[in-house]
Amino acid sequence: MVELIPPHTNFDFVGIRKPMLVLSLVLNALSLALLLLWGPKLGIDFAGGSLVQVRFTEPTKTDAIRQALTGIESGPLDIQDLGAAGTEFLIRVPLSEQNAEGVNRRLTGALAEKFGQDKVQVLRVEAVGPRVGQDLRRKAILAVAVATLMMATYISLRFEWRFGVGAAIALIHDVLIAVGALILCGFEFDLIVVPALLTVVGYSVHDTVIVSDRIRENRRKDRRASLATIINRSINETLSRSILTSGTAVLVVLALFILGGPVLHGFAFTLLIGFIVGTYSSIFIASPVVLYFERGAMPATSDRRAGRAASAGAARRT
Amino acid sequence: MNKSSLMYRTILVVGLTAIAVLCLLPTIWQPLPSWLGFLSGNRVSLGLDLQGGTHLVLTVDIDQAVVNSLEINADELRRELRKAGVKATKIERLDQTTLAVALPNDQRDKLTDLVGQSFPNFKVGAAETTSEGMLVQRLSLLPEEVRRIKQSALDQSLETIRNRIDQFGVTEPVIQRQGDRDIVIQLPGIQDPERAKELIGKTAVLSFKLVRDANAEPFAKGTQPVPAGTEVLYELSKGPGGERRKGQPLLVETSTLMTGDVVSDARVRPGDLPSSRIVALDLNARGARLFEEITAANVNRRLAIVLDDTIYSAPVIKERIPGGRAVISGSFTTDEARDLAIVLRTGALPAPVTVSEERTVGPTLGEDSIRQGVRSFVVGGTLVILFMLFYYRFAGLLADLALIWNVLFLVAALAAFQATLTLPGIAGIVLTLGMAVDANVLINERIREELRNGKSARAAIEAGYERALPSILDSNTTTFLSGVILFQFGTGPIKGFAVTLCIGIVSSLFTAVVGTRLIWDYMLSRRHIQTLSV
């Protein structure tokens, strides 16, 4: 039998919740700082503007394209090499008042003129007006907010309110770090990132629920043990499942990231970070945080005792 | 575990699998043999991002439609007041819905009577007296009339655009309203999206106006003031590459002699040059009479045929033209003449439209996306399958079976609902592969635990499934909920992702929990099993 985590493993997750909480707080603060100070790089879906994806028959330089397009558009052009041996490029034109219509035709016309009609092929054209962009932005934020609220409500109904709060904290933690990672790595926020973030929301709670379920079950079985002991035991018992499931999820997301093409890049990256952080938070954050809601924060000494009790509890069971 | 429960579950699983295979037939077996004809139509169709095509969101300027309507009403009111002998000095539009009528103080009652009788859509508002002893009476459109105008502007635009697209010839277009001012248009597999966009989005207000002065350069440059009752419009001209340009300016009279609503038909005809085309117009009875009068009264003058403020042609009227036929000549290509004929036949849009969103995917990129999607599906799926097999042995094999089963159900459900498969949808399927095994992981871990606690094989399986179930249900509910929210939020491709995610969750619950359990139970009923390969 292959075993990732040997049975009766008993890490003291509850005992190290303080340093982990500090780590998470730092990561979240960094993400928040990135979000507020640096700001997300909004794609045309949210910011408005145009985008043309072109393929050349021969390898071409970004500079040559820029040269061909100078004087065509007034705004700053963003030309991105998509890495297909210098033959595929993404050209983005920000939204501006005077060139709202026909940007794409002008761009492709200028490229055809410079490189030859049969040397350049337009793969994709997207244009989003300011009203639509604003609308999508509002809807995206609303969707993530509603999802978070619904998850917290669901958990509070199915479990105790404390677990609902714990799940919500873990959830915001996961989404915030995923957003921070996207900004840090220079990914663009476009429409496809929204389903990824919502999946992270779902997955984060999914993971937390598994642990919470086990906590509830163990509390019924053992009424005498302290909550800290129960939480620690439950996390340990579900540990191999947590790692296995996030492992398979990460496997397929990696496949999407590497093989899924440029359109799915941001999507797969968001999921990759979200799944990893989601698993981490369901172990180190979601349930341990619940302890802070037990009649005020527990003093540090009883903490250590709780950890020892947890080990003892696990030992007794064997 | 009694025998009959096993039988019922077997029937359920086999039955559902058979239905799933049936649902998939129209998608994978083409053409479908006639005895399976009842299944046809229910197949997975590819989204625009996979098969190539154009997705457009057009925004109808419904506020402009209200303004247009108000101005038409103002014209009518002016006529009616004149008829009634009221000397209104001025009728002005104040804002989107309000007119200001200036008239002598003592004639206010006549105005309110007239409005009450003939203009039921107006509300008589506040009045004020000017220093010259005139009364300025405000009239405003009733809110429900404003709503009706906006509504009908959208309806009419939708209808006109639908007609244009039908005549343009696109297979399986989707034309839908969205919200109170948008029209969503999907044109699969279209070759020249720019041309389609121009055709669909053209306001196409046709008007016939007399030319006052062919040499309008000084007016256009602003060196001479434009005389009252005239305006400067430009002739259509073409650059060397065939692109449209502003041509010669002409000074034309502002008043329109005839509009496009008298056009009953428009057709493409060969022009003077072998390659050039003209558009021949057939006018209805009223138009024919009007056109004859206009031409009779203005022999030797030039008549400008204006479409959306651009002069398409401005021929000299040589003689009176009876019979209701007119011609728009110009150096049109066949395509241009055809598109022009379509917009003239289908009539003008009630208000201008703008393209607020466009997403065009060429067929090459669509094929690339399918290839990339399929490749990540195969690689991701294989990795998960191998991993489960390696880790759980026989139980892993069952989980893998459940996984493949799940994909079968998922795609069958997509076909049955005639859902559209998009690139995010494919990503959703790939993701389901990775997340759906969670149920079996939970169950198998639980079985291992129960075995460690000294339970027998049968008891361990029973306890494993039973104890894992609440966790599986609770956790999947949350992912399902986020899928539902996503569907609410979703536009096009993203909805595709939400749908696959949600269906994948439901079907994975069935295959992972009911399906694999059935196989265990069969094995337990046949043989006395001592050890489990979990």
Describe the structure.
The complex is a heterodimer of chains A (318) and B (534). With 318 residues, chain A is α+β, with helices and mostly antiparallel strands. Helices cover 64% and strands 10% of the residues of chain A. Chain A folds into two domains: 17-43 and 132-317, Multidrug efflux transporter AcrB transmembrane fold, CATH 1.20.1640; 49-128, Alpha-Beta Plaits, CATH 3.30.70.3400. In chain A, a hairpin with a 6-residue loop joins β3 (78-81) and β4. Chain A is elongated and about 80 Å long. Chain B has three domains: 3-47 and 362-526, Multidrug efflux transporter AcrB transmembrane fold (Up-down Bundle); 63-146, Endonuclease I-creI (Roll), CATH 3.10.28; 202-348, Gyrase A, domain 2 (2-Layer Sandwich). In chain B, 52% of the residues lie in helices and 23% in strands. Chain B is built from 13 helices and 19 strands. Chain B has a five-stranded mixed beta barrel with strand order 9-11-10-16-15. A four-stranded antiparallel beta sheet of chain B has the order 7-8-2-18. Chain B has a four-stranded antiparallel beta sheet with strand order 3-4-6-5. The longest helix of chain B is centred in the last third of the chain and has 54 residues, at 363-416. Chain B is elongated. The interface between A and B is large, with 76 and 77 residues. β5 (120-128) of chain A pairs antiparallel with β18 (353-361) of chain B.
Radius of gyration of chain B over all CA atoms, rounded: 35 Å
| H and E string of chain A | HEHEHEEHEHHEHHHHHH
Strand share of the residues of chain A?
5-15%
Number of strands of chain A: 6
Instruction: Specify the oligomeric state.
Output: heterodimer
CATH architecture of the largest domain in chain B, please? Up-down Bundle
* Overall pLDDT score of chain A: 84
Q: Tell me the CATH architecture of the largest domain in chain A.
A: Up-down Bundle
Overall number of domains of chain A:
2
Kindly report how far apart the N and C termini of chain B lie. Answer: 21 Å
| CATH fourth-tier homologous superfamily of the largest domain in chain B | Multidrug efflux transporter AcrB transmembrane domain
- The low-confidence parts of chain A are 296-318
